[in-house]
Amino acid sequence: MNIIAKPINFLREVRAELGKVAWSTRQELMASTIVVIVVTTILGVFIGVIDMFLSKLLSLLFK
Question: What is the pLDDT of residue 44?
């Protein structure tokens, strides 16, 4: 293969592989996005509460 044929062959293979991908529907994408936002918020609040608790505890111990 020469220098021109390799990139062309690569792009053809990429296009063929992208045709095999199972793309999500809009509804699946929205549902997944909502789940990620909710879980991230819950974890953020949980970590924040634990951080405040440990900060208060350490400030009482070292006061």
Answer: 98
What's the angle, vertex CA 44, arms to CA 43 and CA 50, rounded to 5? Answer: 85
DSSP three-state, residue 23:
coil
The structure tokens listed for 35 are: 């789940």
The DSSP-derived string for 36-58 is HHHHHHHHHHHHHHHHHHHHHHH
Residue 42 scores a pLDDT above 70: yes
When computed from its CA atoms, the radius of gyration of the chain, rounded to whole angstroms, is: 25
What one-character DSSP code corresponds to residue 27? H
Q: Is the pLDDT of residue 2 over 90?
A: no
Mean pLDDT over 32-54 rounds to 98
